[in-house]
Specification:
208 residues; alpha+beta; three-stranded antiparallel beta sheet; three-stranded mixed beta sheet; 4 helices
Length: 208
């Protein structure tokens, strides 16, 4: 049978050794280094490097900034509310103090008139015969005292009490038999107080 002219014959080298083609391929396969698997850090870096990850990081930064600003605004609002509450309380105290001062000044102007009414009533009652003017004086005195009481102004008549220089003004001192020294034996003029403040001390005579 005639040989195919396209077929090439590989001649064995002298000595009958096989061609080293298979050995070279195997040697190259052994010498080629194996590809190392991608580490977790590399994978994370690849993920972070994506546009979606960068956009998410920017959104988180913006949210953190907004949260910080919200905390600042909240702290400012709380301080403002506390300052306003302190201001309101201070103004309430100042208004109350101003009202008390005004009421005290008015009462001091009215007290002499009330004293005169009491003297006139005492003089009228000293007369045995009741006069129709006596009842009128008594009604005016009662009404004026009631008006002062409604305003928080009260009179006090400390006869028989221990003398207290914070509430009483000693006009005279006299020995009284059977009375302990320092006791008020007579009130010459009633005292008046507005709440706890003394508008006018009572003028008294004290046993010596």
């Amino acid at each position: 049978m005639p040989e195919d002219p396209k077929t090439e014959h590989v001649q064995a080298p002298p000595g009958g050794a096989a061609p080293p083609v298979a050995d070279e391929v195997e040697a190259q396969a052994v010498q080629a280094p194996e590809a190392e698997p991608a580490s977790e850090a590399d994978l994370v870096e690849e993920v972070e490097a994506t546009p979606e990850a960068e956009a998410a990081e920017e959104d988180q930064d913006e949210l953190r900034e907004r949260a910080a600003r919200a905390q600042e605004y909240l702290a400012l609002a709380q301080r403002t509310q506390a300052d306003f509450e302190n201001f309101r309380k201070r103004m309430t105290r100042e208004v109350a103090a101003a009202e008390a001062r005004g009421m005290g000044r008015l009462a001091k102007e009215l007290l002499p008139a009330l004293d005169n009414l009491e003297r006139a009533l005492a003089a009228a009652e000293a007369v045995e015969q009741e006069h129709h003017l006596t009842e009128g004086i008594r009604l005016v005195q009662i009404e004026l005292s009631a008006a002062l009481h409604r305003a928080g102004i009260e009179g006090y008549h400390p006869e028989g009490e221990r003398f207290d220089p914070a509430h009483h003004e000693a006009i005279a001192q006299q020995p009284v038999e059977g009375t302990e020294p320092g006791t008020i034996v007579e009130v010459l003029q009633s005292g008046y107080r507005l709440n706890d403040a003394i508008l006018r001390p009572a003028r008294v005579i004290v046993a010596g």
